[in-house]
From TrEMBL:
This is NADH-quinone oxidoreductase subunit N. It comes from Allosphingosinicella indica. The keyword Lipid metabolism does not apply. The chain crosses the membrane at residues 6-26, 38-56, 76-95, 107-124, 159-182, 205-227, 272-291, 298-316, 322-344, 369-391, 403-424, 453-480. Its EC number is 7.1.1.-. GO terms for cellular component: endomembrane system; plasma membrane. Keywords: Cell membrane, Membrane, NAD, Quinone, Translocase, Transmembrane, Transmembrane helix, Transport, Ubiquinone. The lineage of its organism: Bacteria, Pseudomonadati, Pseudomonadota, Alphaproteobacteria, Sphingomonadales. Residues 124-419 form the NADH:quinone oxidoreductase/Mrp antiporter transmembrane domain. It comes from the Bacteria. It is an enzyme of class 7 (translocase). NDH-1 shuttles electrons from NADH, via FMN and iron-sulfur (Fe-S) centers, to quinones in the respiratory chain. The immediate electron acceptor for the enzyme in this species is believed to be ubiquinone. Couples the redox reaction to proton translocation (for every two electrons transferred, four hydrogen ions are translocated across the cytoplasmic membrane), and thus conserves the redox energy in a proton gradient. GO terms for molecular function: NADH dehydrogenase (quinone) (non-electrogenic) activity; NADH dehydrogenase (ubiquinone) activity; quinone binding. GO terms for biological process: ATP synthesis coupled electron transport.
Length: 481
């Protein structure tokens, strides 16, 4: 294999790495609003170019670097979602940070660096590659959480995320060392062969538990969710939108690859852990959100709840289950980004962010289009048919039933009813409560276009995309299995 063939297979990472380095130099020497806007849109263009490069060998090139990196349709599917979410997080930033006086070119560059780490994560087929990608993503995320240095809440969110993230990384690294010590390899294929040949030893079981615990922190699954509400509330809203979408996709894809690819012969061992996390996440995410008054904290618990539903598909351990997880994450990203872009519009007459759910009262009268879009997102996240949010839950429950986990699907259906309560509460607040002071005017055409596109996608019109998305998720799952 020539060097150019290798470059073609790692094209997304190369494009983002070279582009991020150049834009960082520009941000260091040109700190004007015009330069900031140029860096933002250049970053979006780089992400689009990286996504387009997946149409070539980068999307189906096979193993690289002695099996440490996989350029396959599974990774390509996840990378498209990651790059899409990262681009939206950059598009949402200028309007927010310009009002706060924090519009600096480092923000889009940090998003790009984090996207490189996530891209490596979803292509990792070796424990060392996994850890390198995860740490690259995490280091950029710690800075993003505390990006508004003069905001006490942002600084607190960054510190909490850093301390707990370092703890999770230590747990993950300890699990990696155990798996290496007892299997003699860090390659996923080698671990799978060792486990299949000799069964799951006590040491390998402990390594499995620690690795899953470290990855559970990244997807914010219960009981490793404790950082999520505080970080989501304290971080700047564009950063929160980013945390709720792209890193979740990367961590979930990585979790799927580790369990299916590396630990496939130990399905009976890890399935119990995944089932517990799925049940705990759906129950806690559904119940704990009921009493929340802050919209960002409510969406934090909503994300925990949704991760629980995705884990139900993973618990099946089948091709249909993996495809359901990928399909779920694709729809989840669109719903989440659309919702957070509306949260960005929640500003008083002076332009200060307003995050209380009560401030949405009467939004249907003051901003009817915005209220209609929010209603679509809330109904869709709740899983109300015929909106797009119904189908991901249907697919994960169906995969669980086919894997003889009917009881797990039944519990998931019951907890989805609990979660629907607080989504409907937001709709009731917008349409039936006495009007609160109207939000201040906003002029952000790019954000408006993204909100409109996301709302159309989750509406019944999105059903036209259902066959294509379902086929793509099945192809990606087949590549992994």
């Amino acid at each position: 294999m020539t060097i150019w063939e290798i470059f073609a297979r790692i094209a997304p990472e190369l494009i983002l790495a070279v582009g991020a380095t150049d834009l960082l130099l520009l941000a260091a020497f040109r700190q004007t609003p015009g330069a900031y806007r140029f860096i933002c849109w250049s970053s979006v263009a780089l992400l689009a170019l990286a996504a387009l490069s997946l149409l070539g060998p980068a999307g189906n090139g096979g193993a690289l670097f002695d099996g440490q990196y996989q350029a396959d349709p599974f990774a390509a599917f996840a990378k498209v979602l990651i790059f899409l979410a990262s681009a939206v997080a950059i598009i949402a930033a200028p309007g927010f940070f310009s009002r706060q006086g924090d519009h600096r070119g480092e923000y889009p560059v940090l998003i790009l660096l984090s996207a490189i780490g996530m891209s490596v994560m979803v292509s990792a087929s070796d424990l060392l590659t996994l850890y390198i990608g995860l740490e690259l993503q995490s280091l950029a995320a710690y800075v993003l959480a505390s990006f508004q240095r003069r905001d006490v809440r942002s600084a607190e969110a960054g510190l909490k995320y850093f301390v707990l993230g370092a703890l999770a990384s230590g747990i993950l690294l300890y699990g990696i060392s155990l798996l290496y010590g007892f299997t003699g390899t860090t390659l996923f294929s080698g671990i799978s062969e060792a486990v299949a040949a000799d069964g799951v030893s006590t040491g390998e079981l402990f390594g499995l538990v620690f690795v899953l615990a470290g990855l559970a922190f990244k997807v914010s699954a219960v009981p490793f969710h404790m950082w999520t509400p505080d970080v989501y509330e304290g971080a700047p809203t564009p950063v929160t939108a980013f945390f709720a979408s792209a890193p979740k996709v990367a961590a979930m894809a990585l979790l799927v690859r580790v369990t299916i690819d590396a630990l496939g012969p130990a399905t009976d061992a890890w399935r119990q852990i995944i089932i517990f996390m799925a049940l705990a996440s759906t129950i806690l995410g559904g119940v704990a959100a009921i009493g929340q008054q802050n919209i960002k904290r409510l969406l934090a618990y909503s994300s925990i709840n949704n991760i629980g539903f995705a884990l139900i598909g993973l618990a099946a351990g089948t091709r249909a289950g993996v495809a359901a997880v990928l399909f779920y994450m694709a729809i989840y990203v669109v719903m989440t980004l659309g919702t957070f872009l509306i949260v960005l519009r929640m500003r008083d007459a002076e332009g200060r962010p307003v995050e209380t759910i009560a401030s949405l009262s009467g939004l249907s009268r003051s901003r009817p289009a915005l209220a209609a879009a929010m209603m679509l997102f809330m109904f869709s996240i709740a899983g109300i048919p015929p909106l797009m949010g119904f189908w991901p839950k249907f697919y994960v429950f169906n995969a669980a039933v086919e894997a003889n986990l009917t009881w797990l699907a039944a519990v998931g259906i019951a907890t989805s009813v609990i979660g629907a309560f607080y989504y409907l509460k937001i709709i009731k607040t917008m349409y039936f409560d006495d009007p609160a002071p109207a939000y201040g005017p906003t002029h952000a055409p790019a954000e408006t276009m993204v909100i409109g596109a996301a709302a159309l996608f989750v509406s019944p019109l999105g059903l036209f995309a259902l066959p294509a998305l379902g086929t793509a998720s099945l192809i990606a799952a087949s590549a992994l299995l």
